[in-house]
Amino acid sequence: MNKSAICIVLVNTSHPGNIGAVARAMKNMGLVELRLVAPARFPAEEANWRAVAASDVLESALVVDTLAEAIGDCQLVIGTSARGRRIPWPVLDPRHCAEQALRAAGREQRVAFVFGREDRGLTNEELQQCNLHLHIPTHEDYTSLNLAMAVQIVAYELRMQAVSAELPDDACAHWDEPLSTAAAMEHYYKHLEQTLIEIGFLDPAAPRQLMPRLRRLYGRLRLDEMEMNILRGILTETQKRIRT
Amino acid sequence: MNKSAICIVLVNTSHPGNIGAVARAMKNMGLVELRLVAPARFPAEEANWRAVAASDVLESALVVDTLAEAIGDCQLVIGTSARGRRIPWPVLDPRHCAEQALRAAGREQRVAFVFGREDRGLTNEELQQCNLHLHIPTHEDYTSLNLAMAVQIVAYELRMQAVSAELPDDACAHWDEPLSTAAAMEHYYKHLEQTLIEIGFLDPAAPRQLMPRLRRLYGRLRLDEMEMNILRGILTETQKRIRT
User: Fold this and answer.
1) 3-class DSSP state of B111
2) Which end of chain B is more exposed for a tag (fewer CB within 10 A), N or C?
């Protein structure tokens, strides 16, 4: 993703601390372009403090007077909105908005995500300057999200889209040892069974479902070679002790 | 989703303000069960202040001394982790972890998401008490997420999973007027063409690609019936003016 293809626009932010938290949330997810429409106070100490290591995002932030100036160079403008506006507008959740944004950015378009005031969001007039509205599906018990949290969710979705090709959906995709082969597993089960007989835990005359249960247990694990060596070592040691 | 099937566990949180921000992030996404392992200061004024309307989550929070106590009743324990631990553990992004969590909760299992200290996360020993590790794919320029932001992302993913069946992937899924039929569109194009000829903008002898371009434009819009009436009204008025 071209870092500056997507910008975050904050309209009339009251608390500079929120601007700082937004800068950090952006940089954590690889966004760098921040535009501020008539913030109440900026620059401000609290903003730098909350930005922690993202003060560069604050320093390069563009400060303008109107939303129109902030989004003037953008081909896709997405405004965050609570539901239930008088005139319905095209509205999507953060995931689908992120999809649209990255698709547009991939076509060399500039995209703005616009966030409103802490207490009452964007006005209808501002929302009507947007191509698309974004709605975060909060729970009905408490729908008012902190501003920086809303930006964090959107920035996270953009990042997930940008890196989705790299993200494994298999929890064990990154492993340090090669996995055991089926043949090695069979050797292990044989060794295990023999040992269980030797210690008197398994009666070959009445084996019941013991070995199938142990196969199901170890089979689910997908043991790696080092783990296999450890388990085999335990069996070998156990046998030595018993036989002496 | 059964609200209390999934709990958020914070280990050794230094700043009570972060605990409050976590409570708000949780309630915004429909989570209510918070467990605190040896917080530096709690209860605390800053926690209530940052929780805003989620002070009920703080009031019902369980405070315990050890991680083992916090997760004792859980069947699935997911610990947040930066990458690159010495021993690789099963690791997934927030989306896939949320999937697993809701699947487990659907089978009446209790699930814990465990978050570590602000400055250094969870220890290796704590991570080894988890079934699965969660990694948020931050950008390499700035990987250190604020604690409450990390909780917000996870809570958001849980909420997205929980409501995914209800969420429209069509931006215009909720609309107030029925859409125009193809026949109504054809009447409109005919009316438009006639009007453009009357105002002298379209030369029937050399129409070029004007009408196809206008068809492409209005066709993409998927006009509703009220919008259609407005456009037809404009054409009718225009014709009246010209003909007088």
Assistant:
1) strand
2) C
**So where are chain B's domains?**
3-163, 182-243
What CA–CA distance (Å, rounded) separates A119 from A116? Answer: 8
Does the distance separating the beta carbons of B176 and A28 come in below 8 Å? no
**A3-163 has which fold?**
Alpha/beta knot (3.40.1280)
Is B117 buried (19+), middle (13-18) or exposed (0-12) by CB count in 10 A?
middle
CA distance B92 to chain A (A): 5
Q: Note the CATH architecture for domain B182-243.
A: Orthogonal Bundle (1.10)
Predicted TM-score (pTM) of the model is: 0.86
Per-residue pLDDT reduced to its tens digit, B11-35? 999 999 999 999 999 999 999 999 9
Q: Which of residues 205-234 of B touch A (CB under 8 A)?
A: none
Compare CB distances from B91 to A92, A132, A171 and report the shortest one's residue: A171
Q: How confident is the model at residue B6 (pLDDT cuts 50, 70, 90)?
A: very high
Average pLDDT, chain A: 92
The alpha carbon of B79 is separated from its chain's Cα centroid by a whole number of angstroms, namely: 21
pLDDT value at residue A2? 60
B28·A145 Cβ contact <8 A:
yes
Choose from B50, B149, B170, B222 for mutation: most chain A CBs within 10 A.
Answer: B149
**Which two tokens mark B230?**
């407005």
> What is the distance between the alpha carbons of residues A147 and B94, in angstroms, rounded to a whole number?
21
- Is residue A21 within 8 Å of residue B146, measured between CB atoms? yes
Helix A210-221 × helix A182-198 angle, to 10°: 140
Task: Give me the interface pTM, i.e. the ipTM.
Answer: 0.83
For the stretch B58-74, pLDDT in tens is 999 999 999 999 999 99
Judge: B160–A137 Cβ closer than 8 Å, yes or no: yes
For A198-215, write each residue's pLDDT tens digit. Answer: 999 999 999 988 998 899
Residues A44-53 pLDDT 10s: 999 999 999 9
Considering only CB atoms, which chain B residues are within 8 Å of A88? 172, 174-176
